Amino acid sequence: MPVAERWARTWATVGRSAPRGEYEALLARYAEPARHYHTVQHLGECFAVWDSVRDLATRPGECELALWYHDAVYDPFASDNEARSADLAAAALGGNDAVTTNVRTMILATKHDATAPGGDASLVVDVDLAILGAAPQRFEEYERQVREEYSWVPGPLFRSKRRQILAAFLARPAIYQTAPLRERFEARARVNLARSIEALGG
Question: 39-53, 107-121, 146-160 — which is least confidently predicted?
């Protein structure tokens, strides 16, 4: 589905109209020069996975809005990107209602520092993490893209921190919380993570 068509459909699904110029502003964010992984490529890959599991969602329109905005803010020097992305989504939605609350919850869950709260939020998180279970060539490209986003971090420090992050995913009883995506990605994600940790010197 063309990106612009998806954008219009997403907003229609939640019974809202997107603010004027919001689509262009959001895509401009995903095209910022400091980004190498958190780009429209990642957004497109998320939607490709999302389309295969959309029917599992209780509130698919809200999930899709959360995916649109989950990396709206990406500053590699900051630790509050998810919160600021959630704020942008809330401002675009223009209300303090259940739709806004649900979208905020799902975006905040993509911080990946804790287990998602279940339901639709877990589905959104699993879609965001699908890259971990990508084909080896794409996973290796992803790792290079992440390194480019943190090119300012000295090599030894980057490798140490990256090992910690990947090892934390590998240590989980299950990386994916939704059965269809666990069946599709879990085994390959574990192979990818183990290989990357080894390459990083872990």
Answer: 107-121
The burial of 178, by beta-carbon neighbours within 10 Å (0-12 exposed, 13-18 middle, 19 or more buried), is given as buried
Check residue 155 and give left, alpha or beta (phi > 0: left; psi -120 to 50: alpha): alpha
The answer, yes or no, to whether residue 201 has pLDDT greater than 90, is: no
Confidence check: pLDDT of 202 > 70: no
> How do the domains of the chain map onto residue ranges?
3-199
For residue 170, which of 138, 147, 200 has the smallest C-alpha distance?
Answer: 200
